[in-house]
């Protein structure tokens, strides 16, 4: 459970990185170049995050429904992920950023699960930021899988949340959920963990998203009055 006190530091920000394809199409470029530009935005935002009070950053890179996109575009995105892991791991390690990948691994192309495991192992010591990248991820499938693991056992929110996170000890609710690209929907991302997340939607296409956009979202978040179903603690009310 998060308290109202850790409001401004160690924030868990989750981002639905949408709009790569439209960004490219508007420029008369192939959609694959939009995805490539999206990787550069990932690097920018990841490196800006620790300085803006973000402790955990969960990025939606590829949804379980994205397998429905054309095969060459899917192959291109998988190639970008492979390249990201190859080029970025040492840099993440140097910057104290720990990388995890969430989502299914059994449908990824050959070699990619091993590359993910290596990157996770190499960055395990990072303490400045926990970067979680969601690949072949579906919140509903994750919830179903956790329910399956629970069997008939008693279900508290805590216990279920632990099952949902698998082995990830950094199990946290989302504080701020950002979606770029102009759509205002969740598209099956972190449905359980975002129960009390503040939502921030921006028309900025993901390849254009930068540290200033993150700062704007964080400033918006800081102005929100989070009540978690109760009353605002700052309102000076006394208990009856
Ligand atoms: C976001 O870009 C990345 C993925 C979904 C993999 P899109 O591919 O959804 O781009 P748009 O929404 O068509 O612009
Ligand atoms: C959500 O975006 C998934 C990612 C950004 C990875 P989509 O573009 O796949 O979602 P919809 O189709 O607009 O809902
Ligand atoms: Mg999209």
What does this structure look like?
It comes from Methylobacterium iners. It is a single chain. This protein has 240 residues and is an alpha/beta fold. The protein has a single domain, classed as Decaprenyl diphosphate synthase-like (Undecaprenyl pyrophosphate synthetase, 3-Layer(aba) Sandwich), CATH 3.40.1180. The protein is built from 7 helices and 6 strands, in the order βααβαβαβααββα. The protein has helices at residues 20-26, 31-48, 71-94, 112-122, 139-150, 157-164, 211-222, and strands at 11-16, 54-63, 97-102, 129-137, 176-179, 198-201. It has a 6-stranded parallel sheet with strand order 3-4-2-1-5-6, sandwiched between helices. Helix 1 (20-26) crosses helix 2 (31-48), helix 2 runs parallel beside helix 3 and helix 5 crosses helix 6. The chain is globular, with a radius of gyration of 18 Å. The two termini are 24 Å apart. Magnesium ion is lined by residues 18, 181.
Q: Key terms for this structure?
A:
240 residues; 7 helices; binds magnesium ion; alpha/beta; 38% helix; disordered N terminus; Undecaprenyl pyrophosphate synthetase; binds 3-methylbut-3-enyl trihydrogen diphosphate; 6 strands; globular; 6-stranded parallel beta sheet; single chain
